[in-house]
Specification:
Layout lengths: L8 H15 L4 H20 L12 H13 L4 H17 L3 H4 L8 H4 L20 H5 L3 E4 L6 E4 L12
Antiparallel strand pairs: 1-2
Helix pairs in contact: 1-2, 1-4, 3-4
Length: 166
């Protein structure tokens, strides 16, 4: 009698949680970021000895403990808020609407101590004078045709709305 190896319930939970993260939709980069954050959460559960067997077993204390541990690691408040939004999306996809509610009093920004945040980015814009002329105007570019025999010179776009000169 052959016996099939079976995944443990904890491993199945991990796989299901990552699958939920992918199923939330979005671009490839969004899905990849969501999976990365889901893995952070699953690693937090494993490191703290929390063995969940079903996604419906996730409680507020697990969610809150993860966010507070990220805060203790020195992660910026805005990043933690973004991770919280990702976790809410995953839980909402699973049908955990009460836990995923943005106005949940146990998981609010005030309760977690994430109130002093700013949505302004840290990057500055590049002034028009700082961009090299070739990049700014399209520049000259040498390209070959499909067969590789002939060479065409493309001067790029001089003005918006005009066509390239070949």
């Amino acid at each position: 009698m052959s016996r099939k190896s079976q995944r443990s319930r904890v491993e199945m939970f991990r796989k299901d949680f990552i699958t939920l993260a992918v199923e939330c939709g979005g671009s490839y980069a969004t899905k990849a970021d969501r999976v990365r954050i889901a893995k952070y959460f699953l690693n937090y559960l494993r490191e703290n000895g929390i063995k969940l067997r079903d996604t419906h077993s996730i409680n507020t204390r697990h969610f809150q403990g993860y966010l507070l541990s990220r805060k203790a690691q020195g992660i910026s408040h805005r990043t933690i808020q973004n991770e919280r939004a990702v976790m809410r999306a995953i839980l909402q996809k699973d049908g955990r609407y009460k836990l995923a509610a943005p106005d949940n009093p146990l998981l609010s920004n005030e309760t977690l101590g994430l109130t002093n945040t700013c949505r302004d980015g840290k990057k500055n814009t590049v002034a028009t004078g700082g961009i090299p002329e070739g990049i700014y105007r399209g520049g000259k570019k040498e390209s070959r045709c499909c067969s590789g025999n002939a060479t065409f010179l493309c001067t790029g776009f001089a003005n918006e709305g005009s066509s390239p000169v070949m």
